[in-house]
Amino acid sequence: MKKAKMLVIFVVPLLMLLFFNILLAGQAASSVHAKVKEAVAEPELYGSSVISDVDALADPITGLAISHSTPVDLNEPVFFTATVTGGTEPIFYSWNFGDGSGAVLPDPLMNNLISHTYTVTGNYTIVLTAANFGTPRIMTASMVLTVEDLPEPPPPNVSFTYSKPITVNQPVIFTATVMTGTPPIFYRWNFGDGTEISPTPPTAVTISHIYTSEGFYTVALSATNFSTELLGAAIDEVEVRPVSAPPGEKKIFIPLLLKDLSSPQAADLACTYVVDTVTGANGEVLITVQIKNEGQSEADGFWVDAYFNPVKPPSENNLGPWKDACGGNSSCSTGIAWGIRNAPLAPGGSRNLVSIPDDEDPYGFDPDYTIWTGRLPTPLTSMYVYVDSINNQDGKNDGAVSESNEGNNLCEQVDTLEPAREQQIQHRRSDSTLPAR
Questions:
Q1: How far is CA 423 from CA 56, 168, 183, 419, 430, in A?
Q2: What is the model's pTM?
Q3: What is the CA radius of gyration of the chain?
Q4: What element of type H or E holds 172?
């Protein structure tokens, strides 16, 4: 009896994968019906007695249904969820989004969540197929989805900006902006560190605040006037960093504390970035990242990632691709990846990377590892850019480039960039120097 149970545990998943692939091949050759239906697989596909044993133990799938995120907008990802009311696991899923993309499999097959982006407006019939070892083994569900090119949302009535960078025990200037509203307008600030205050006078659009500890803080602004309704509110997360050491100390002492003295000639990667609105492009932006090598050796074979709304921001002790930063594997819907390979960045050099595919611009992103429509996600609660964001296979948690200072790889957003000092790409290295994502 124990041997039979072990056989079921290890052999059944393999047989199920084979069955599901045969199922998909059969589906591709048959027409799709836009309603829930059931079908019994042909008996000759299952010659094993193991399948018969599992059939007796497995409950068939019931209540298969599809739900999706809203709004459904052109060129924006739509998130679909498959749900069942019953059925013995594992349950495998396959999707057809009705736009000619064919059968789409989630990763892994048991994942009931998936996203898809439509590039043409219209009505699409979504067909979901689910299978397990119950009898009947297959169930499908469908729905019609309408995709529209929705107008851009109006800008918020209340917003604010602040001086950068923000460092411990240094004053930060916050500036409020109200698009519409009859004066006088009164402002109320909450800086996320226990301080909630109005400026003096309360109609002043600027206010100064000092943070005494490093970390991330949620800043909230509300604006009112003599009307009975709130004019609006704005929320943003700010990062407070420790005070930087003087340049002389940074270059002489910090590398000696962090790195082996036998490798004093290491590279040192740092970066800044800007976000510029593209004129007349209906809300599109251009992100330009300037990577710099402040060390004494050239750097090559590393990734630069842009993260949007991550659950845990990238850091020296939290490296990884942008896709996995929103709570799980492939959990983020938007992100950018630039691969630096065959193009060493010399000591003292800098290079500008842009949010354009690399088949259109040699300094563009890698489209195989990027999901980017040209627009920032809505809502945008946080954005980070990190240079040398993926570890290689050397067993060290230091990215792909061993640097004299691993603590300055988080890029700082600035208003303008300095001219790049090394913008010519040299093809010298093999692709093998780039870490796998």
A1: 66, 35, 50, 9, 20
A2: 0.42
A3: 27
A4: strand 171-178
- Residues in Cβ contact with 316 at an 8 Å cutoff, skipping those fewer than 6 apart: 397, 406, 407, 409
Say how far apart CA 335 and CA 369 lie, in whole Å: 8
CA angle at 380 for the pair 379 and 384, rounded to the nearest 5°:
160
Cα separation, 437 vs 435, in Å, equals 6
pLDDT digits (tens, 9 = 90+) for 25-80: 544 444 333 333 343 344 343 444 444 555 556 899 999 999 999 889 999 999 99
Left, alpha or beta for 232 (phi > 0: left; psi -120 to 50: alpha)?
left
- Percentages of the chain per state (helix, strand, coil), in multiples of 5: 15, 35, 50
What is the residue whose two structure tokens read 């809502």? 379
Angle at 237 between CA 180 and CA 243, to 5 degrees: 125
Domain 158-240: top CATH class: mainly beta
Res 177 pLDDT > 60: yes
pLDDT cut 70: percent of the chain above it? 78
The letter for the amino acid at 433 is T
With 0-12 / 13-18 / 19 or more C-beta atoms within 10 angstroms meaning exposed / middle / buried, residue 228 is exposed
Q: Do domains 2-147 and 158-240 have the same CATH topology?
A: yes
> What residues contact 34, with CB distance under 8 A and at least 6 apart?
125, 127, 142, 144
Burial string for 121-155 (b: 16+ CB within 10 Å, else e) reads eeebebbbbbbbbbeebbbbbbbebebeeeeeeee
CB-neighbour burial class of residue 44 (10 A; exposed 0-12, middle 13-18, buried 19+): exposed
Question: Rounded to an integer, what distance in angstroms lies between the CA atom of residue 223 and that of residue 184?
Answer: 10
Give the CATH architecture of domain 265-433.
Sandwich (2.60)
Q: What is the pLDDT of residues 224-238, one digit of tens each?
A: 988 888 888 999 999
Architecture of the 2-147 domain: Sandwich (2.60)
Q: What are the domain boundaries of the chain?
A: 2-147, 158-240, 265-433
Report the C-alpha gap between 210 and 58 in whole angstroms. 62
Place of tokens 């090598």: 293
